[in-house]
Amino acid sequence: MQHSHATCPPPPREADDRMSPGDFDASFTADMPRLRRRLLALTGNPYDADDLLQETYLRLSRRARSQSLAQQQHPYAYTCAVALNLLRDSWQHPSRRERTTDQLPEAGWDGGLDSYEASATALALLGMLSEKEAAAVILVDLEGLTHDTAGERLGAHRGTVQRNRLRGLAKMRAALHH
Predict the structure, then answer these.
(1) Domains, in order of start, for the chain
(2) pLDDT by residue for the chain (178 residues), tens digit each?
């Protein structure tokens, strides 16, 4: 009589069996070296393989408490399928990939609150000025016109525009310091 050394598949899990975060971490950590080797072979770059491994972990950890992940009979195969789908997605949508750069990232967007606050402050400060001072500040400092051009638009001499602008800026600085 010959003995078969084939392994039996693990018993199916019950429908309400959920994987705890600790169980998920242990399972993923056990499969991680093997998965990293596979991803390294596919990407050819250890940094891309590590990024993909991390993204796979994040994707699966969000599902760790769901029944679909807990019911998987072959967690490594499921993990590989998720990783390959992420890799395929990065190939199909190259705009989603991170790109290296030597520039610092832009400041985060706050929903426009900083811009709104700056506009409100500027309007309040301009409201404290006389019409001539406000017009000179707006034309020269905000619109970028020269004193000559601003003078032509306002029907005033260049020196008058410059003087009104300097008075207006001085009033605005004084108001900001208080």
Answers:
(1) 21-96 (1.10.1740), 122-177 (1.10.10.10)
(2) 444 444 444 444 444 455 666 777 777 788 889 999 999 998 888 988 999 999 888 888 776 555 555 567 777 888 888 888 888 887 777 666 666 677 776 766 666 677 788 888 888 999 999 999 999 999 998 888 889 999 999 999 999 999 999 999 999 999 988 8
Its pTM stands at: 0.43
Residues constituting the chain: 178
Q: The tokens of 100 are what?
A: 């290296």
Q: Check: CB of residue 43 under 8 Å from CB of residue 106.
A: no
Tokens of 34: 């093997």
